[in-house]
Write a structure and sequence with these properties.
With about 450 residues, the chain is an alpha+beta fold. The protein is about 25% helix and about 35% strand. It has nine helices and 17 strands. The strands form three sheets. It has a six-stranded antiparallel sheet. Helix 1 crosses helix 2 and helix 3 runs parallel beside helix 4. The termini are far apart.
Length: about 450
């Protein structure tokens, strides 16, 4: 046992080595292996009663083998030597029947990560079920204490999760590390009769010692829900829109998707051939920082084992680089950017305003705090989603709104960003504050 894991890092490395050696013995020209294990617990309470107690423990081994340019993949949750060998042989059987792909294969050896890098990603939370229940109850009770209008609860949850993995390939790369991610959340229902609203809030941390007081999470969830009472519909119009910080990550996520290798080589992106071109206003700068200590998307290497590096993705509004894996890079005739598996800690440079400052700058328009549905066409950039939020006049929130749709085109929306707030709520790989977009169509009554 090690830090609650059933297998140590050295044991995972030994399992990976077993797979690599058996693949070579069976005639594979190349092989890559991923071995992982994770465990955790989640506790939910609703109206102070324990609703769920869940434990999870998972493990898996995935093997990709190559016979020349043919690739086969197989996986197993059985770590026995016999099962590992059978998994390798299954992958080889698949490879023998697949078509050749001239872009398939391992990365260039000189691009692989070497040596260890401690990025402070592992902070196990050894919390008992009773202690987790107490935290969830405090969180939820704080929401009920805000107002008698808080009538019901969808629950408060406390979750602690730990995992570790090892990736290896036949070029000599082998690396892995442990990570943790914990969260506390609360969702409540307010009002009565025909005027009932819900909202929620949560905090996520790698280190549980950095959580805010759970009571603050419940309190804020309740205040957000109460602020939505007496919501109105809007008439159809065009106006400026502010995406609240937790939603701004989705806007940046749409940009990342559009400039990622898979969408580009399949020609399913509205930002095809945008490298070196302006895709944001001049003031926008987006940096990728894979080595932030404790970052949610920090890693010394990507899913291919390629070393990750700091870089500027957007500078002065101009796209400096795509997000490419080894495979997608080869499909496009470009080098990998170390992004197999996704982006690493994207930092969107903030302006000088917090959310209140952005509201004042906007003057009159819509603050969006909830989005519904998917409604994004990445081929054309067309964007249309259900929304709720607040109407703003003279830089101040005047009333809540609901049952509206916001629409535009992502290319125009990105170029139409007027300002980016400094009210960053870090919950994942994208660090960005609220975003003010110059003009969108609001469909209502």
């Amino acid at each position: 046992m090690s830090d609650g894991f059933a297998h140590s890092q050295s044991a995972l490395r030994a399992l990976a080595q077993t797979a690599l050696e058996h693949a070579a013995a069976c005639g594979a020209s190349a092989c890559e292996v991923d071995v992982s294990e994770g465990f955790g617990q989640s506790v939910s309470v609703r109206r102070q009663d324990v609703e769920t107690i869940e434990y999870n423990r998972d493990k898996g081994l995935g093997v990709s083998v190559y016979i020349g340019q043919r690739r086969g993949h197989a996986s197993s949750s059985d770590f026995s030597a016999e099962a590992i060998k059978a998994t390798v042989e299954a992958a080889l059987s698949i490879a023998r029947f697949t078509a050749e792909d001239d872009c398939a294969g391992l990365p260039d050896e000189k691009l692989l990560a070497r040596g260890d890098m401690d990025l402070d990603l592992f902070h196990p939370w050894d919390i008992s079920v009773d202690a987790a229940i107490e935290i969830a109850r405090r969180c939820e009770q704080a929401a009920f204490d805000v107002s008698p209008m808080v009538k019901n609860s969808e629950g408060a949850t406390v979750s602690a999760q730990q995992s570790h993995f090892v990736s290896a390939n036949s070029l000599g790369f082998m690396g892995g590390f442990s990570t943790s991610r914990h969260y506390v959340s609360c969702s409540v229902i307010v009002g009565e009769g025909d005027d009932m609203q819900r909202d929620d809030w949560y905090a996520s941390r790698r280190n549980a010692a950095e959580f805010p007081d759970p009571a603050l999470i419940g309190d804020y969830a309740a205040r957000r829900a109460l602020a939505r009472l007496d919501s109105r519909k809007l008439t159809t119009r065009k106006c400026p829109v502010i995406f609240e910080a937790p939603l701004s990550t989705g806007l940046i996520g749409s940009f990342v998707h559009a400039v990622s290798g898979g969408a580009l080589y399949r020609k399913t992106s509205f930002l095809l051939d945008s490298l070196g071109k302006k895709v944001f206003p001049d003031f926008v700068r987006i940096s990728e920082r894979p080595h932030i200590r404790g970052g949610f998307a920090s890693s010394p290497f990507d899913d291919d084992g390629v070393v990750t590096r700091d870089r500027e993705v957007v500078k002065d509004g101009v796209l400096q680089g795509y997000f490419l894996s080894t495979y997608s890079g080869r499909k496009l005739g470009m080098p990998t950017t170390g992004n197999a598996g996704g982006s690493h800690n994207l930092i969107v440079q903030s302006g000088k305003h917090d959310l209140k400052g952005l509201l004042r700058k906007m003057g009159r328009g819509l603050l969006v705090t909830e989005l519904l549905g998917q409604g994004v066409n990445y081929v054309t950039g067309d964007y249309s989603r259900g929304a709720a939020g607040y109407w703003v006049e003279n830089g101040e929130i005047t009333y809540p709104v609901e049952e509206i749709t916001i629409a535009g085109n992502l290319r125009d929306m990105l170029l139409g960003i007027v300002d980016i707030g400094n009210d960053i709520e870090v919950r994942g790989s994208k660090h960005v504050g609220s975003i003010l977009v110059e003009r969108m169509t609001i469909a209502g009554n």
